[in-house]
Amino acid sequence: MNYATRNLEDDHVNILKLIDVMESMTRVNEPNIAHLEEVVELIRDFADGTHHAKEESLLFPLMAERGFSMQQGPIAVMLHDHAEGRNFVKGITENIRLLKEGDLPAINLVYYNMLGYNELLRNHIAKENNVLFRMADNALSASDQQSLLEKFKVVEDQNKSNNIKSDFAARIDTLGQIYNPF
Asked: Distance (Å, rounded) from C-alpha 182 to C-alpha 164?
């Protein structure tokens, strides 16, 4: 059976590739601002706008219907991590703006936030893949999983239609070829 949690784990593969690219980017002395902005766009559109949207609007509420708490325990931890990730992205974005305005030391805060995001997401993904998704697999029926998959497809299709640059995996691979993290 093609579980909905497998769809989310497949997203994680690309998110981890993006994190590898980001880590490589932090080793560059003269940053390419367009690439930094591309990373922010990929995080906002794919990692947060698509992947986290599937979790926050579909998986987590369904798990709550099946008895999990949204205020404590694994789901609450995941939601907290998502908020922390958004704070790191805000830090990246604000410091890219400063960098573009000529504040060259702002690159240090761009990189600081990128590395913080990377560490957070690596740990977050490990918790989801190894704990939360396994709990979901045990708690959700086959029809729950199928229904989630269908709803995930709607979210994915909506985000593709809202964003002409929606081939996230190809965009991540292109950056990967430039920064050689794979």
From this structure: 26
CA distance 107 to 55: 32
Q: Give the model's pLDDT for residue 159.
A: 75
DSSP state of 67: T
Q: What is the pLDDT of residues 10-46, one digit of tens each?
A: 999 999 999 999 999 999 888 899 999 999 999 999 9
Give the tokens for residue 46: 């794919």
Tokens of 176: 């990967």
Could you tell me which of 80, 68, 81, 86 has the C-alpha nearest to residue 134? 68
**How far apart are the C-alpha atoms of 140 and 8, rounded to whole Å?**
15
Domains annotated for the chain, with CATH where assigned, are 4-179 (1.20.120.520)
Q: Give the three-class secondary structure for 153.
A: helix
Alpha-carbon separation of residue 111 from 26, 140, 148, 154 (angstroms)? 5, 40, 36, 34
- pLDDT, tens digit (0-9, with 9 covering 90-100), for 135-180: 999 999 999 999 999 999 999 888 776 654 568 999 999 999 999 8
